[in-house]
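Let us work through a complete example step by step.
Step 1: write down the sequence.
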Amino acid sequence: MAQDESDARGSMNETRTPGPSDGGRSQKAGTPDLSRQHIARVVRYEKPESKRDRHVVSFGRTDSMMVFMQVLLQSGESSLHKHPNTDSFWWVVRGKAAFYTTDHELLAELEPEQGVLLPRDYPYYFNAVGEDHLEILQIESFLRQGERLQTVHLEEDRVGDYEVTESGEYALAPPPLVAPSAEA
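Step 2: predict the structure and record it as tokens.
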């Protein structure tokens, strides 16, 4: 993996928690950069050119949520996992997705303009379905402010290597803070 891809992947602020098949290993990304959390962020998205089967575009985060677009170029499979500290929302923009839960039970087959809301600690995985590329919006809302995304793998991690890029622009300056009046 190239150095710039490794640095970009760290920007997702994900904490990988050991699962039954990862031999007790875990990886932690750096502390989330929350210094810009109160600055408006304009996001412009174009489907990225990618040489890998999966590409994740980070739209940004605040102290209580993060937003991504995942692009799967081929029908692919992720592994059963859960996020104990976030509620997740997934929205299909293009293509089709199938979401599964424990014992490979089908949870939902989604087409464009359809989504699924998953409470924290809910085991799931999803696949791209059909010939078209899947573009799916992912929103993670944290249980406690300032946390990193925690992922517990319940099966062997089959996602493999993927690219991460960032999108959007921060405004030039945060809104001015109004100091409390001493005369009150």
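Step 3: interpret the result. The first helix runs from residue 3 to 10.
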